[in-house]
Amino acid sequence: MHIAPTDTGWMEVIVGPMFSGKTEELIRRLRRARYARQRVGVFKPSIDDRFSETEIVSRAQAALPSVSLNDPTAILSLAEDLEVVGIDEVHFFDERIVEVAETLANSGKRVILAGLDLDFQAQPFGNVITLMGLAEFVTKTLAICMACGNPAARSQRLASGGKERIVVGDVEAYEARCRKCFKPYPLPQQTTLTHN
After folding, report:
1. Domains of the chain, with CATH numbers?
2. Cβ distance 156 to 173 under 8 Å?
3. What is the pTM of this model?
4. How far lies 46's CA from each of 89, 91, 96, 192, in Å?
């Protein structure tokens, strides 16, 4: 049963791998809020400039104007007069995003956050997992495995990036993969035993 909150703020978190429609779903929810004449603001981390520096953009080319920033605490002052706050690529923000989202929701705002829940090694992004635990609503989107066609919940790194956790890229650097087809990157070195 889905209960719509009234007279309170709340958090909605949309998570999943790359190519699973997270930004598309975020845009859909924000557009509906705009149709309802609610005051909506959209934010994203400056590091994500793959498609636009001034918009969030889905792979289906849906877009909404957004404010890019490095410091997530700046959202607090920018969102003072807003009713709905959308934040894309939340995994790129540092741990302060958790307190920002909680503060916004506690002040009566609807806060919708979208981002990866797992990194390129299929390890959880701590801030995103914390947000999922604090949220009233969590949506997990799945992609289609580009190796076998199964439901995919992981982002396979293809391009070089070493062990850096954050490597911004798109189809040239990542593929959606299912549990069976996912291989941690870099691939483990083969060791050869020699006998003397």
Report:
1. 10-144 (3.40.50.300)
2. no
3. 0.87
4. 10, 12, 15, 45
- Distance CA(59)–CA(22), nearest Å, equals 10
Angle between helices 96-106 and 126-134 in degrees, nearest 10:
20
Active-site residue identified among 89, 102, 136, 172:
89
- What are the structure tokens assigned to 60, written together? 């289906």
Reference 30, options 74, 67, 85, 68; nearest CA is 85
Residue type for 156, please? Answer: Q
Q: Locate tokens 């076998």: which residue?
A: 148
Is 55 an annotated catalytic residue? no
Looking at residue 142, its amino acid is L
- Identify the residue whose tokens are 């035993």: 193
Q: Running along the chain, 196 residues long, what does each successive block of 10 average in pLDDT?
A: 76 96 95 96 88 79 90 98 97 96 98 96 95 98 96 87 60 84 66 38
Quick check: 151 and 182 in contact, CB under 8 A?
A: no
